[in-house]
């Protein structure tokens, strides 16, 4: 489902072509094949000067080796940078001692206990999917903003990095699955701050009902599915957060009707936990399920893990620093993170005249591409339009390492590179 309840499908193009010794080797992507995570094994060395991570030239996804040139292309329809390619295959959600893996397994435990042997689980589906699967199959309108190159990573005009785990919904339904959970890494061009990152992780859940399920209940099919959905998810919230107060908010998603958001009152404030709803009948009809009704939900693992584990910055999920990784153990949900970084941020301002084509997401992509996880926040602090109709933006960039102090030399070097790339790539005029 979109937003936290996003929808994206599997890679529907039949193949990619890998050049091997002059031969064209036809390789098929299957969403059900095995993938091996590319783990970063380099240990943190505080005394070494930081260098931007170098993306591997070859990774393995869905049991198939993929070269960088097939994902990061010199193609006008491609906007996938090396910084994003380097995250493919890392699969943090499959690491049992990582906060995201611990949370995923806790959700699995809830479904295994309350619905024994009912829900099929998929956490290894290929994140390279078709535009049709990512948008069309889940009824995202043709003019929806999420389809834009400003929001989505396109491999080519017909292929994207999934924006949501719902991308696999249509295929799984068509293959006969009626109860399933899909967990995976999803990709969206986004702003830079402590709660946003261009790669994060979602879980999608779907349950399909037949007429035999609701007949005799005295309820129509939609009401029956909605009531079952709310009962299931209230139980999940109690499983994760304890005896909390809850409330349901009516909302809108293109692929469910009615649609809801579940909020809980936790740590003295209301927190959105997930989005959900009764699946649009058109999605079921296209999957050959004319007489069925279904519910679906989607949640962001980082969002919940940051609350449950008291993790203050989303960048920490990607660190290999043992001071972070050693704090978590398999099956230990809610262990509170003990901060180890007290390093101060360094702020650099940058002002420029923008063009009509300028977007903040494009700016953040440039900054991230140079500074990686050393950039903590990019924030618009001032803007004005002069008498000639020219608009100026001033952005404040916060640099801070989660692991060590940055030197003035490093920060100045990064900032000069950012300025050069912003001017050349975004066609702005620096002030």
Automatic annotation (TrEMBL):
InterPro entries per UniProt: aa-tRNA-synth_II, aa-tRNA-synth_II/BPL/LPL, Fdx_antiC-bd, Fdx_antiC-bd_sf, Phe-tRNA-synth_IIc_mito, Phenylalanyl-tRNA_Synthase
Record bears the keyword Aminoacyl-tRNA synthetase: yes
Listed GO biological process terms: phenylalanyl-tRNA aminoacylation
Main subcellular localisation: mitochondrion
SUPFAM superfamilies: Anticodon-binding domain of PheRS (SSF54991), Class II aaRS and biotin synthetases (SSF55681)
Domain of life: Eukaryota
Molecular function GO terms recorded: ATP binding; phenylalanine-tRNA ligase activity; tRNA binding
Catalytic reaction list: tRNA(Phe) + L-phenylalanine + ATP = L-phenylalanyl-tRNA(Phe) + AMP + diphosphate + H(+)
Domain Aminoacyl-transfer RNA synthetases class-II family profile: 184-339
E.C. number: 6.1.1.20
CDD domains per the UniProt record, alphabetical: PheRS_alpha_core
Keywords assigned by UniProt, alphabetized: Aminoacyl-tRNA synthetase, ATP-binding, Ligase, Mitochondrion, Nucleotide-binding, Protein biosynthesis, Transit peptide
Domain FDX-ACB: 341-431
GO cellular component: mitochondrial matrix
Compartment(s): Mitochondrion matrix
Family, similarity comment: Belongs to the class-II aminoacyl-tRNA synthetase family.
Free-text function comment from the UniProt entry: Is responsible for the charging of tRNA(Phe) with phenylalanine in mitochondrial translation.
Protein's recorded name: phenylalanine--tRNA ligase
